[in-house]
Amino acid sequence: MMQVNVHTTSGRGFTPEEIAERCVDKIIHISDAADPMIQQQARAFRKQVVSVVTKHLKDAVQSDRTTVYNALVDAGKPQLAELIRRL
Q1: Which of 5, 43, 67, 78 is least enclosed by beta carbons within 10 angstroms?
Q2: What are the domain boundaries of the chain?
Q3: What is the pTM of this model?
Q4: What are φ and ψ of residue 4, in 5° steps?
Q5: Whole-angstrom Cα distance, residue 81 to residue 2?
């Protein structure tokens, strides 16, 4: 059976942390029936994976902002570019 989850925000997009959690939820499943020691190890591993994915998502956001900044400067819109850079 396929499970469908819906996530929403109000007045903003999703944060890198929120996206990382959802991403890792799709990658790592910890069975309730697993040995408690295995569950503990899996939870520690999951926490590390969330941290790594979050860091790379933040890097991707920053890289995209750099791309948008440069495109705006190239288009002759330096003031708008500066607003983007400050985000």
Answers
A1: 5
A2: 16-86
A3: 0.84
A4: -115, 130
A5: 44
> What token pair was written down for 75?
């288009």
How many CB atoms within 10 Å of residue 48? Answer: 11
* Listed residue (31, 23, 30) closest to 49, CA to CA: 23
Report which of 50, 87, 52 is spatially closest to residue 72, judged by C-alpha positions.
87
b (16+ CB within 10 A) / e for 25-40: eeeeeeeeeeeeeeee
Is pLDDT at 16 greater than 90 in this prediction?
yes
Q: What percent of the chain has pLDDT over 70?
A: 100
User: 6-20 burial, b if ≥16 CB within 10 A, otherwise e?
Assistant: eeeeeeeeeebeebb
Distances (CA, A) of 13 to 9, 10, 24, 46: 6, 8, 19, 24
